[in-house]
C-alpha cells in the first residue's frame, strides 16, 4: 500500500480536482490521508464528503499549525509501505503512483523522484523537472547530486519515500521556506538508494502570493538556516562532501542576495542580514567551488570580492 498525505488549508477552490486525480490512479492500493489544517472555508466539508464515499480516504483535522505539522501527523497515521506527499491544489498523472511505487519496489530504493511540470488552466506551461533520465544513486552519490543542486527538484511532492525512512525523520516545524529541502536532505542522509526516474508525472501551479512567487519576504531567511544546518550536518557526519555543502550554502545565500538587489528597500530594512549574506558568500567562495557555480554567479561574486578590496584601499589612502 502507498499512503498519500495531503495537508489542506482553505483549498476549497482546487482540492476536488486534486483528490479526483488521486482516486483515479492506475495503482489503486492506496490511502489518501487528508489533514485539514484549521481551514475556515469549505475544505473540511469537501474532505468529509470524499471520506464518506471512498474507504481509501481518511480525514484528520487540527487547529492551524502549519504544513510541516500536518505532514508529520499524516505520517504518524500512515499504514502504507511507501509514503507520498502532495499539495491540495496540484494534479497527479494517472500513473504517477504506479511509476513511483514500481520503481521503488523493483529496485529496493528508499527514495524515488519523478519529474514535475507547471500548469495553468489545465494546460502544461513548462516542465521544470522532466529530463526523462533514469539514474540510480548510492548514498554518497545521492548526497553529492542533491548538494550540487543542478536541476534538482527539492519539493517533497513528486517523490515516494519508504516507510522506514519516513518514520525516522520529521518536517522541521517553524521553518517557512525550504522545509521540503531539509526533509529530503534528512532522508538522503539515512538512505542507501535514491532513484531519479525523471518523467513528468506531477503538475503544480505557482499562484500569485505564494512564498515562491512573492517578491522579497523575510521568510526567505529561513532558507539560510536550512543551508547552514545542511553544512553543519555534512561537516559533522560526511566531511568528504564538505565542498558540496559549501556549494549548496553559497547558492542559498546568493539567491537571497539577488532578492535584496531586486528589492533595494529591503537592504535598508534588513541591513544587518544583508551584510551577513555578503560576508558568508565572500568567506565561503574559493577556487574549489567555482567549478560548480554558473558563470553569472562567478562574475557577480568576483565583483563582490573586488569591491571589498577597492573599498579597503580607498580607506587606506584616506
Gist of the model:
Strand 1, helix 1 (15-23) and strand 2 form a beta-alpha-beta unit. It is built from 13 helices and ten strands. With 318 residues, the protein is an alpha/beta fold.
Features:
10-stranded mixed beta sheet, Spore Coat Polysaccharide Biosynthesis Protein SpsA, Chain A, alpha/beta, 10 strands, single chain, 20% strand, 318 residues, disordered C terminus
Secondary-structure map with pairings?
Elements (H helix, E strand, L loop, with lengths): L1 E7 L6 H9 L6 E8 L5 H11 L3 E6 L4 H11 L4 E4 L5 E2 L3 H12 L3 E10 L2 E7 L4 E5 H10 L10 E4 H4 L12 H11 L3 E12 L16 H17 L4 H21 L1 H6 L1 H14 L2 H4 L4 H23 L1
Parallel strand pairs: 1-2, 1-4, 2-3, 6-10
Antiparallel strand pairs: 4-9, 5-10, 6-7, 6-9, 8-10
Outline the structure in words.
This protein has 318 residues and is an alpha/beta fold. The protein folds into two domains: 2-204, Alpha-Beta Complex (Spore Coat Polysaccharide Biosynthesis Protein SpsA, Chain A), CATH 3.90.550.10; 218-317, no CATH class. Helices cover 48% and strands 20% of the residues. It has 13 helices and ten strands. It has helices spanning 15-23, 43-53, 67-77, 96-107, 139-148, 163-166, 179-189, 221-237, 242-262, 264-269, 271-284, 287-290, 295-317; strands at residues 2-8, 30-37, 57-62, 82-85, 91-92, 111-120, 123-129, 134-138, 159-162, 193-204. Strands 1, 2, 3, 4, 5, 6, 7, 8, 9 and 10 form a ten-stranded mixed beta sheet that branches. A hairpin with a 2-residue loop joins strand 6 and strand 7. Helix 7 packs parallel to helix 8 (221-237) and helix 9 packs antiparallel against helix 11 (271-284). The longest helix has 23 residues, at 295-317. Mean pLDDT is 90; it is low at 209-213 and 308-318.
